[in-house]
Design a protein that fits this description.
globular; alpha+beta; five-stranded antiparallel sheet; single chain; two-stranded antiparallel ribbon; 244 residues
Length: 244
């Protein structure tokens, strides 16, 4: 992979983390890269209108150019255009965080995350990759899409580390859980990755690509509406699959 591409993206992520103008020296320290490399990235971004110098020796800060381009891109996203109304309805109906993830090989990347008014939120962001597939409902949904042999080999190839006291860490139990979930049509994560949280996921296919919808909330709330949540998730997945 190109270092310059990673470093350019790192620059914007550092500004998002720091939320203030940064000097070249501070950027070098934050990014842990050579001065010359940082200088090249900053100058290129400044020339293209993505960064500006607040005042002489006052540090750099991003302009609104990236936001404006991002908004145009997002407004014309074919996936978001079809998915957002359905996912918003699902989030409102359950008062839960709802996300849409896209699979590529054995990785899931979150494309959309819709949060409820309630302050408890599912701690993922668009662009994040799902971690610990064995301990998340979205990960189990992806594992359910491959053959039993592939599933077993994958689980043998990773370290099944307990994230909470409820995490399934033995392969036979995981295989049984995934198979049962595949049969009923939805997957769950009951405090397996985060305590006091229950997530449900359903898988569907768009244009030969696997997507996963997840609804997440507190354990008590999601258990109270488990039947409704699982039915709404499956209905939403069917709606989206039909909209291909």
């Amino acid at each position: 992979m190109s270092k310059i591409v990673y470093r350019t993206l790192d620059v914007f992520e550092v500004f998002a983390q720091q939320k203030r103008p940064l000097s070249l020296t501070e950027l070098v320290r934050q990014l842990d890269i050579p001065v010359s490399s940082c200088h090249d990235v900053v100058r290129a971004l400044e020339e293209r209108g993505y960064l500006y110098e607040v005042r002489p020796r006052g540090g750099y800060y991003p302009t609104s150019r990236l936001f404006e381009l991002s908004k145009i891109i997002l407004d014309n996203d074919p996936v978001a255009d079809r998915a957002e109304p359905i996912l918003r309805h699902l989030s409102d109906a359950l008062n839960a965080s709802v996300s849409l993830a896209k699979a590529k090989e054995m990785q899931l990347t979150y494309l959309m995350v819709l949060n409820p008014v309630d302050p408890l939120r599912f701690s993922v962001n668009a662009g994040d990759r799902a971690r610990n597939l064995y301990a998340t409902s979205a990960g189990k949904a992806l594992l359910g899409s491959i053959s039993l042999e592939e599933r077993r080999n994958y689980l043998k190839s990773i370290k099944l580390q307990p994230l909470t006291p409820h995490t399934l860490t033995d392969i036979p139990s995981l295989l049984a859980d995934i198979e049962a979930s595949e049969q009923r049509g939805w997957f769950s994560n009951c405090e397996e990755s985060v305590e006091d949280a229950l997530t449900l996921s359903v898988r569907f296919v768009w244009s030969d690509v696997i997507y996963v919808i997840t609804a997440a909330g507190t354990l008590n709330r999601m258990q109270r509406q488990l039947e409704q949540a699982s039915n709404l998730l499956m209905e939403s997945a069917q709606q989206l699959q039909r909209s291909t």
